[in-house]
Design a protein that fits this description.
The chain has 6 helices and 3 strands, in the order H-H-H-H-E-H-H-E-E. It has about 160 residues and is mostly helical. The chain folds into 2 domains: about 70 residues; about 60 residues, Orthogonal Bundle (Arc Repressor Mutant, subunit A). A 3-stranded antiparallel β-sheet has the order 1-3-2. Strand 2 and strand 3 form a beta hairpin. The longest helix has 26 residues.
Length: about 160
């Protein structure tokens, strides 16, 4: 994806922010050009300078808010978000070992038995299984004092 969004697919707030940014830029150009077109007289110089400064400051604030909105890293289009969640991930070597052992035992076994067969430490196995569960490869079901580990999908 090249980062360029089409005009008709944009959310309404993006369109408003882009229009505001364009108008702010136009106002900034006008505010820079206005002092060169006015005659420099001593009457009312201070008042016009204060008003000009306030307008210039407000344009800067408008441009800053628009740019912050458009470049906010937390904003992400819904299709992009769903792609990142559903994207299949490659299995690590340790995850492949777990999948192979579970597949050999009809896709389910006790967690303690799985730890024994893999040869992993308890903490490594727990972290690995938690990651695999978060990715949707396995499901852990508490059964009394132990947990059963089940494959949720055909992983390869």
């Amino acid at each position: 994806m090249d980062g360029v969004r089409g005009g008709e697919n944009e959310p309404p707030m993006d369109r408003v922010a882009r229009i505001t940014l364009a108008l702010g830029g136009f106002m900034l150009i006008l505010l820079i050009a206005v002092p060169f077109t006015l005659e420099s007289g001593t009457t009312g110089y201070f008042a016009s300078y204060v008003i000009y400064s306030l307008f210039l400051t407000s344009v800067g604030v408008i441009i800053g808010v628009s740019l912050m909105w458009l470049n906010d890293p937390r904003r992400q289009d819904a299709p992009e978000r769903s792609k990142s969640v559903n994207a299949p991930r490659m299995l690590s070597a340790d995850q492949k070992v777990v999948v192979a052992i579970l597949s050999a035992s009809n896709g389910t076994m006790w967690q303690a038995e799985l730890v024994r067969e893999t040869g992993f430490t308890d903490s490594k196995a727990s972290r690995l299984l938690s990651r695999m569960e978060a990715e949707g490869h396995i499901r852990r079901i508490r059964d009394g004092m132990g947990k059963r580990v089940e494959l949720t999908e055909v992983v390869g």
